[in-house]
Design goal:
By secondary structure, the chain is of the alpha+beta class. It has helices at about 40-45, 45-50, 65-75, 85-90, 135-145, 180-185, and strands at about 10-15, 20-25, 35, 55-60, 80-85, 95-100, 105-115, 125-135, 150-160, 165-175, 190-200. It contains six helices and eleven strands. It has a five-stranded mixed sheet with strand order 4-3-5-2-6. Strands 9-10-8-11 form a four-stranded antiparallel sheet, covered by helices on one side. A two-stranded antiparallel sheet has the order 1-7. Strand 9 and strand 10 (about 165-175) form a beta hairpin. Keywords: Amino-acid biosynthesis, Aromatic amino acid biosynthesis, Lyase, Phenylalanine biosynthesis. Pfam families: PDT.
C-alpha cells in the first residue's frame, strides 16, 4: 500500500488470528522435532509451545506460507509449521492442534482498497503517507501537533532511496474531507492521502 498509486483505503476491518500446528499426513506429535513459523507467530504461540512442546526446536520462516511449504516438501516427518488452516489446504498438510493463541490480543487490522474515498460518517480515520528524512520528520510532527484531531498511530518503513530517508504511515482521527484535516492537507503537500474511512476501533 505504501508504494501503491491510484488506490485508496476505503474501509478497515479487524480479524482475530488463530494458529494451527500443521504437519504432513501421518505425522504424530511425538515425531515433531522442529516447528517453523514467522518470527512474530513464534512469539504469539510461545506460551502454547512452552506448555505443550517445550523441547521442540523453533525455527523462523519468512511467512506462514513459506513454513507450510517447507514442511510439505520435507523428506522426514519431523517438521511442523504454525499457520492458518488455509495453509494446510494449499500444501496438503493436516492440523494436529487448532486455535493456538487465539484471543483478543491476537488481532490484525486489514484494509479494503478501492477507488473513491467514502463520505464522512462522524467516526472516521484518515491514513496519510509521508516520505521524509529523519531530520525533517520533527517539523512534520510539529505540523501534526497543530491539528485539533488526534494522531492515532505512526508506523515507519525504510525509504529505500537514501540512508536517512523513511516512509511514515500516519493514522489520524477524522475525515480528510472535513476540517481541520482538509485545510491541513491543502497546506501540507508532503502528506499523501492514502484513504479516509469509517473507524473500526
Amino acid at each position: 500500500m505504501l508504494a501503491m498509486r491510484g488506490g485508496r483505503i476505503v474501509a478497515e476491518y479487524t480479524r482475530m488470528l488463530g494458529y494451527s500446528l500443521l504437519v504432513k499426513p501421518g505425522t504424530a506429535r511425538a515425531q515433531v522435532k522442529a516447528v517453523l513459523a514467522h518470527p512474530v507467530a513464534l512469539q504469539e504461540v510461545k506460551p502454547w509451545l512452552d506448555r505443550e512442546m517445550p523441547t521442540v526446536e523453533r525455527r523462523p520462516a519468512a511467512s506462514a506460507g513459506a513454513a507450510a511449504q517447507e514442511v510439505a516438501g520435507a523428506a522426514a516427518p519431523g517438521l511442523a509449521a504454525m499457520g492458518p488452516p488455509a495453509a494446510a489446504r494449499i500444501h496438503g498438510l493436516v492440523a494436529l492442534a487448532q486455535g493456538i493463541e487465539e484471543g483478543p490480543h491476537n488481532v490484525t487490522r486489514w484494509w479494503v482498497i478501492g477507488r473513491e474515498v467514502p463520505p464522512p460518517t462522524g467516526h472516521d480515520k484518515t491514513s496519510l503517507r509521508l516520505r521524509t528524512s529523519e531530520r525533517a520528520f520533527g517539523s512534520a510532527l510539529q505540523a501534526l501537533a497543530g491539528l485539533t484531531g488526534r494522531v492515532l498511530a505512526i508506523y515507519e518503513r525504510p525509504g529505500r532511496t537514501t540512508l536517512d530517508g523513511h516512509v511514515y504511515l500516519i493514522d489520524l482521527a477524522g475525515h480528510a474531507a472535513q476540517e481541520p484535516l482538509k485545510s491541513f492537507l491543502d497546506a501540507n503537500a508532503g502528506f499523501d492521502l492514502l484513504g479516509a474511512y469509517p473507524r473500526c476501533y
